[in-house]
């Protein structure tokens, strides 16, 4: 299929300023066990091509699952028609933008001796963890799963691009709920955050083994715990909550198409404006945030984005100062500002947009013990459970599964329903401690949504533990 | 397209082994999308896609697969045969589903 499409494209490519074809084959499998019962088994294979035409300043795309000559020719004709309709009426002169002629290959890392697990082996492990979570009658629900995806993508263009990328993702997950009267508490394996490129060694080595009993014990501990106290205090966020903090209040506000107003009627806008880049104090000088497609195991690592632009690590925030937005080649040309190779599509049937990829807080110099020792009164929070943020990505409120008090430099008792609120524009300036590499975890989420028609995409977030000064913290209803 | 789906369903029925049953769903779309910003066009385009969701059942064990269709009969029948083979192997290794319930009365 990938070989034959090259000759098809060569034969069918229209005489226009630019044409690209992106062929995707995405294979997925989910194995789920709930309360010790295997759930209906499902797999999927999604295959199709996206054609993009740029001509006389206009732009058009057409996606098709018919990969015959007739199907591709029809898609090319539809894309060309849209380019003709939009010429002279578009947000920019697309023909003036240099599009990709890159050539290369990328593949997800594989360990030297990957485990050979059968379908039955995987089911047995999930069943065991689900059954071992049942340590008490108050454990009312458990859910264990393994989701794997294998995506092959070929990008060709009339400028000479030929980029082939193979990305394999492994996403184990576990969640347990404990109930006592009107109180229900849950614990999970990183809040669906174990999302990595690689092979099944991830399933065996990244927390699934033994998690059923451990997380059930923590859920019961939460039932017995007092509510998180309320007030302004220091806040120590673990990586499994930092993931969403980065995602919602750095990643989304820095998407360039959002800054340009493209998502105003749907996913929202941004409090960030174009004149802020290069000078705005986004966070304290301890804050360094990178767009990093080069970590082999991270969820959204790749060699080229979906417009064929080569991807390399770049800082979007350096020493607290805003540097560059998350925007691909087309948005960069529209805005007149340098971005990153982050034009991404969720699949073959959607056009690329400015997205997060891997967006990481760089490790600092403080050990976890040092950060805890520096706190007179505060709370450690772990694993996101809820979020709410305004459509300019400024005012937010987050809740976590698990909290622990910190008093006079020591970790104290567990607290439940830990929440906090803040404003992106000031929250990151309250960053006063950044954990070292020993505290850093590489996580991700498969569910980042925006755009019309809707696109749900996979993103990575690596972060150390981070300490924030005098944040408004609050607990649940007494 | 409805006739195409019915023909594919008949083809699937003809491939079943003794004791097997199946369910399938067809999804298709031909849509145009145009986005605007301040009265100017951005990202206009169209999407044509068809897919089949196939559930293979043997006793109380079952497995399902979703896959794209090309609407080319020869190509899609080859997909169906490959999917059936894979689903058979999965169903053979799966335990009975205690929650499985299949409607047998026809309503339309």
Can you tell me about this structure?
The complex is a heterodimer of chains A (478) and B (108). Chain A has helices at residues 2-12, 69-86, 119-132, 201-205, 211-224, 239-251, 256-259, 329-335, 368-373, 424-427; strands spanning 18-34, 37-38, 41-55, 58-64, 103-107, 139-157, 162-180, 183-188, 196-197, 231-237, 289-291, 314-318, 321-322, 343-344, 353-354, 359-361, 377-389, 395-407, 410-415, 419-423, 431-434, 441-450, 455-463, 466-474. Chain A is α+β, with helices and mostly antiparallel strands and 478 residues long. The N and C termini of chain A lie far apart (61 Å). In chain A, 54% of the residues are buried. In chain B, strand 2 (40-58) and strand 3 form a beta hairpin. Chain B is elongated. At the A-B interface, strand 2, strand 3, strand 4 and helix 2 of A face strand 1, strand 2, strand 3 and helix 2 of B. Strand 4 (58-64) of chain A pairs parallel with strand 2 of chain B, so a sheet runs across the interface.
Summarize the structure.
Chain A is built from ten helices and 24 strands. By secondary structure, chain A is an alpha+beta fold.
Which SSEs are present, and which pair or pack?
The complex is a heterodimer of chains A (478) and B (108).
Chain A: H1 2-12, E1 18-34, E2 37-38, E3 41-55, E4 58-64, H2 69-86, E5 103-107, H3 119-132, E6 139-157, E7 162-180, E8 183-188, E9 196-197, H4 201-205, H5 211-224, E10 231-237, H6 239-251, H7 256-259, E11 289-291, E12 314-318, E13 321-322, H8 329-335, E14 343-344, E15 353-354, E16 359-361, H9 368-373, E17 377-389, E18 395-407, E19 410-415, E20 419-423, H10 424-427, E21 431-434, E22 441-450, E23 455-463, E24 466-474
Parallel strand pairs in A: 5-7, 10-17
Antiparallel strand pairs in A: 1-2, 1-3, 1-6, 3-4, 6-7, 7-8, 7-9, 10-24, 11-12, 11-16, 12-13, 14-15, 17-18, 18-19, 18-20, 20-24, 21-24, 22-23
Chain B: H1 2-15, E1 20-37, E2 40-58, E3 61-69, H2 73-93
Antiparallel strand pairs in B: 1-2, 2-3
Helix pairs in contact in B: 1-2
């Amino acid at each position: 299929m990938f070989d034959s499409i090259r000759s098809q494209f060569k034969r069918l490519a229209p005489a226009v300023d630019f044409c690209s074809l992106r062929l995707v084959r995405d294979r997925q499998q989910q194995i789920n066990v709930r309360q010790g019962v295997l759930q209906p088994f499902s797999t999927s294979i999604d295959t199709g091509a996206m054609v993009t035409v740029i001509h006389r300043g206009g732009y058009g795309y057409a996606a098709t699952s018919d990969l015959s000559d007739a199907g591709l020719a029809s898609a090319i004709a539809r894309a060309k028609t849209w380019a003709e309709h939009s010429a002279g009426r578009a947000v920019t002169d697309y023909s003036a933008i240099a599009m990709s002629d890159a050539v290369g290959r990328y593949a997800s890392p594989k360990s030297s001796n990957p485990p050979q697990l059968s379908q039955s082996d995987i089911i047995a492990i999930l069943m065991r963890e689900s059954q071992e979570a049942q340590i008490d009658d108050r454990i009312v629900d458990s859910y264990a799963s393994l989701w794997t995806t294998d995506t092959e993508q070929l990008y060709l263009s009339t400028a000479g691009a030929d980029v082939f990328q193979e990305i394999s993702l492994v996403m184990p997950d576990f969640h347990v709920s404990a109930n006592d009267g009107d109180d229900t508490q849950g614990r999970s394996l990183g809040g669906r955050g174990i999302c990595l490129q690689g092979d099944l060694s991830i399933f065996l080595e990244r927390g699934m083994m033994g998690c059923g009993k451990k997380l059930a014990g923590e859920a019961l501990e939460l039932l017995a715990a007092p509510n998180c106290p309320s007030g302004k205090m220091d806040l120590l966020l673990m990586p499994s909550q930092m993931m969403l903090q980065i995602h919602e209040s750095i990643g989304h506000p820095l998407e360039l198409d959002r800054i340009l107003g493209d998502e105003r009627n749907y996913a929202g806008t941004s409090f960030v404006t174009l004149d802020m880049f290069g000078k705005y104090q986004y966070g304290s000088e301890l804050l360094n945030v990178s767009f990093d497609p080069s970590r082999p195991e991270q969820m959204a690592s790749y060699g080229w984005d979906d417009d064929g632009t080569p991807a390399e690590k770049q800082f979007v925030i350096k020493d607290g100062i805003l540097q560059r937005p998350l925007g691909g080649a087309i948005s960069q040309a529209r805005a007149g500002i340098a971005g990153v190779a982050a034009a991404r599509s969720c699949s073959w049937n959607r056009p690329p947009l400015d997205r997060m990829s891997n967006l990481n807080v760089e490790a600092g110099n403080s050990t976890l013990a040092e950060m805890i020792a520096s706190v007179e009164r505060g709370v450690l929070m772990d694993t996101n459970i809820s979020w709410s943020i305004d459509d300019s990505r400024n005012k937010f409120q987050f809740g976590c599964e698990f909290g622990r008090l910190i008093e006079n430099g020591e970790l104290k008792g567990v607290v439940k329903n830990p929440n906090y609120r803040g404003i992106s524009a000031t929250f990151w300036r309250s960053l006063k401690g950044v954990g070292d590499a020993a505290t850093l975890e590489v996580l991700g989420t498969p569910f980042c949504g925006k755009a019309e028609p809707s696109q749900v995409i996979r993103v990575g977030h690596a972060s150390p533990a981070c300490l924030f000064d005098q944040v408004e913290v609050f607990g649940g209803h007494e | 397209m409805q006739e195409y789906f019915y023909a594919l369903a008949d083809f699937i029925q003809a491939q079943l082994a003794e004791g097997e049953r199946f369910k399938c769903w067809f999804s298709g779309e031909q849509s145009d999308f145009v986005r605007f910003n301040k009265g100017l066009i951005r990202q206009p385009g169209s999407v044509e896609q068809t897919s089949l969701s196939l559930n293979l059942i043997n006793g109380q064990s079952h497995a399902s697969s979703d896959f794209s269709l090309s609407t080319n009969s020869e190509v899609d029948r080859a997909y169906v045969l490959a999917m059936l083979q894979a689903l058979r192997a999965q169903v053979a290794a799966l335990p009975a589903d205690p929650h499985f319930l299949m409607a047998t009365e026809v309503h339309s």
